[in-house]
Specification:
The structure holds 2 protein chains of 2 kinds. Chain A is of the alpha/beta class. Helix content of chain A is 29%, strand content 25%. Chain A has a 6-stranded mixed β-sheet, sandwiched between helices. Chain A has a 3-stranded antiparallel β-sheet with strand order 2-1-4, covered by helices on one side. Chain A has a two-stranded antiparallel sheet with strand order 10-11. In chain A, helix 4 crosses helix 5 and helix 5 packs parallel to helix 6 (173-188). The longest helix of chain A has 16 residues, at 173-188. The model of chain A has no long low-confidence stretch (mean pLDDT 87). By secondary structure, chain B is mostly helical. Chain B has a single domain (2-279), classed as ABC transporter involved in vitamin B12 uptake, BtuC. Chain B has helices at 2-5, 11-36, 40-60, 64-85, 90-112, 117-124, 132-151, 153-161, 163-168, 173-195, 200-214, 218-243, 247-275. Chain B starts with a helix and ends in a 21-residue tail after the last helix. The chains are: A alpha/beta, B mainly alpha. Chains A and B meet through strand 5 and helix 3 of A and helix 8, helix 9 and helix 12 of B.
């Protein structure tokens, strides 16, 4: 590897420096003084309560947010691909799986795919286990397949950085495992990944690196360092206990009489 | 048979037939985006707004295509701007702008009293008085729309299906939304003489809806809607002559009959696909987060 190549491999993909930003509709900024560096091959999960700025953080990484203070520095020519929450998609829209994947590459002048593109889409779909479903309508897919189709669309953009907004919200346990394994595999190939999640035990605890966010970054590092009662209380404003199971942290609500909602009194249990 | 072919001897009928067929195809093509983006109401409002421009240009003695065209594009850009602002409900804003413009057109005609055949024709469409210039105008708009859809196929599809992700992926979604509005406005101006402002919305919506019942593929839906629109225009214009009914209503009724036929043939399967039109997240250019649409 030449010195130049080494230097560019070490150069971060994206760097947020003391970023403060918000939306015109709201007085309070969505993010305050956020520092975040994303290196090639990094795998980071962003956790925090609803409305803490997770999605805004992803948008900042894509460059679609205007900083009120601080800066967002993106590597020149960086290719970022974004996987939306499956709940936000209009599943009745008339597109087949292959049409959905192809739409992402808008550079081509002609509507139909070139021979090379056709081969590439087939390879991507095969890799994600969707090879036989290419001509299906998107609504005919299961929840896990829908998620993988959007990952396929993202991969078709040949990204260096993959962003996923709540990739496992609304899916069952098996699909969640499927998605995690897939992302791990892609990360193993060198793809940098940043995802947001509200699932501390099912997703966050499995990731190599976490950022706890509540408008500010309240903790960053490996799960065992970050998922602590102190950091979690500052992030969520609620007291939680952290247990350990098989070397992994497990976050549970702290047992306090005031935290327990007695709803079972009528059933006599 | 000879009775069926007889109108082809007249130049005005041949012109009218060409305009109706091309207009049907054009509205069918653009209608796919109108329907999928949830812009039907915008199409309806815009056609009414353009009536104001039609009245003004008739009174000022300006060329109708020029006057209504400028007026239409201005209204389209205003509607596009309002829908992106999100301060008031987009539908309310469109209602105000376009209905006011329509009312202005009616008032101008009432005060200056030049109502008559051209007034009726603008409202309901007419086979009469379609000039060679109209043929060229609708052909030019159709070519322009075709070129836009062809060369921006993927970007338009991405913007229509998934505007947020398209924007993040570097697609200039605002520009494509504005482009669609422009094409829509030009299509309405070029076709209003044959279709009539009160009926254009139906020619935008019906072919796309019928096509949607027949396919799940976007590419095929574009082709089908264009073909269905052309067919309705062609058959409707012939009926208009033979039944002596304005061309707008006959074209729309042919479309409605086709809709009923396809609906009966595809049954619940087709309807299930169309039910989806109510699911689109928001009107043009507006995206609302968190719409849950699990069809399952």
């Amino acid at each position: 590897m030449s010195a130049d190549a080494r230097a560019s491999a070490a150069e971060p993909l994206v760097e947020l420096r003391r970023l403060t930003c918000g939306y015109r509709s709201s007085e309070t900024p969505a993010l305050v003084d956020v520092d975040l560096v994303i290196h090639p091959g990094q795998f980071t999960g962003v956790v925090g309560p609803s409305g803490c700025g997770k999605t805004t953080l992803l948008r900042a990484v894509t460059g679609s947010v205007v900083p009120a203070a601080g800066s967002v520095v993106r590597r020149r020519g960086l290719r970022v691909a974004y996987v939306p929450q499956v709940e936000t998609v209009n599943w009745s829209f008339p597109v087949t799986v292959v049409e959905c994947v192809l739409m992402a590459r808008t550079g081509r002048v002609l509507p139909w795919p070139s021979r090379a593109e056709r081969a590439e889409v087939a390879a991507v779909l095969d890799r994600l286990g969707l090879g036989d479903l290419a001509s299906r309508h998107i609504r005919e897919l299961s929840g896990g397949q829908q998620q993988r189709m959007f990952v396929a669309r993202a991969l078709f953009q040949r990204p260096q950085l993959l962003l996923l907004d709540e990739p496992t919200s609304g899916v069952d346990v098996r699909t969640r495992h499927e998605v995690l394994h897939l992302l791990d595999e892609l990360n193993g190939d060198g793809l940098a990944i940043v995802l947001t999640t509200h699932d501390l035990n099912g997703i966050a605890a499995h990731l190599p690196h976490l950022v706890c966010l509540n408008r500010r970054v309240l903790g960053a590092g490996p799960p065992l360092d970050v998922l602590t009662p102190e950091v979690l209380e500052r992030t969520y404003g609620a007291t939680m206990d952290v247990l350990e199971h098989g070397g992994m942290p497990i976050v549970v609500d702290q047992y306090q009489p005031s935290n327990v909602v007695r709803m079972r009194r009528a059933s006599g249990s | 048979m000879s009775e069926l072919l007889r109108p082809f001897e007249f130049e005005f009928f041949r012109n009218g037939l060409i305009v109706a067929t091309v207009a049907g195809a054009l509205c069918g093509l653009i209608g796919v985006y109108v329907v999928l983006k949830g812009m039907s109401y915008i199409g309806h409002g815009l056609s009414h707004a353009i009536f104001g421009g039609f009245a003004a240009s008739a009174l000022l003695g300006v060329n109708f295509l020029l006057g209504a065209g400028v007026w239409g594009v201005a209204s389209a850009l205003m509607v596009n701007g309002v829908t992106r602002r999100r301060v008031i409900g987009a539908d309310a804003a469109i209602g105000v702008i376009t209905t006011a413009s329509f009312a202005l057109g009616l008032a101008l005609f009432a005060v200056f009293g030049r109502a008559g055949r051209s007034f009726d024709a603008a409202l309901f469409g007419s086979i009469l008085g379609v000039s060679t210039a109209d043929v060229w105008a609708v052909a030019a708009v159709a070519v322009f729309a075709g070129v836009v859809v062809f060369f921006a196929y993927r970007a338009l599809l991405f913007t229509t299906f998934d505007p947020e992700v398209a924007q993040v992926s570097g697609v200039a979604t605002g520009r494509y939304d504005a482009m669609l509005m422009l094409v829509l406005a030009l299509s309405i101006v070029a076709t209003m003489r044959v279709l009539g402002v009160t009926l254009i919305a139906a020619t935008l919506v019906i072919p796309a809806t019928v096509a949607r019942m027949l396919t799940n593929s976007f590419g095929r839906m574009l082709g089908l809607a264009t073909g269905i629109g052309a067919l309705c225009g062609f058959v409707g214009m012939n009926l208009s002559y033979h039944l002596d009914v304005q061309s707008g209503p006959t074209i729309v009724l042919v479309g409605a009959t086709l809709f009923a036929g396809v609906f009966a043939a595809t049954g619940a399967r087709g309807l299930g696909r169309v039910a989806a039109f109510d699911d689109h997240p928001a009107p043009a250019g507006v995206s609302l987060p968190g719409k849950v649409l699990h069809g399952g």
